[in-house]
């Protein structure tokens, strides 16, 4: 078992649930305190984090293209 396969297993089986649980907890806490802006922010950051965990190469390639266009 390589380190990459271990990382992929962790992200697929545990990491996504940790991120989803944390985002859900922060969302519920914000809604309970009637801070809807924070609830929307928690959902957006959680969704972006889960997307990054599932597709890291796509996200990093897009970021590298943006930086190459800005700095070239």
Protein described:
By secondary structure, the protein is mainly alpha-helical. It has a domain at 35-72. It contains three helices and no strands. The protein has helices at residues 3-32, 36-54, 56-70. Helix 2 (36-54) crosses helix 3. The mean pLDDT is 90.
Task: Briefly summarize what is shown.
The protein is mainly alpha-helical and 72 residues long. The protein is 89% helix and 0% strand. The relative contact order is 0.10.
Keywords:
72 residues, mainly alpha, 89% helix
Shape: flat
Low-confidence stretches: none
Mean pLDDT over all positions: 90
Into which percent range does the helicity of residues fall? over 70%
Give the percentage of residues in beta strands: under 5%
Strand/helix succession: HHH
Largest sheet: none
Radius of gyration over C-alpha positions, nearest whole angstrom: 16 Å
Number of DSSP helices?
A: 3
Termini separation comes to 40 Å
Secondary structure: number of strands: 0
- Helix/sheet category: mainly alpha
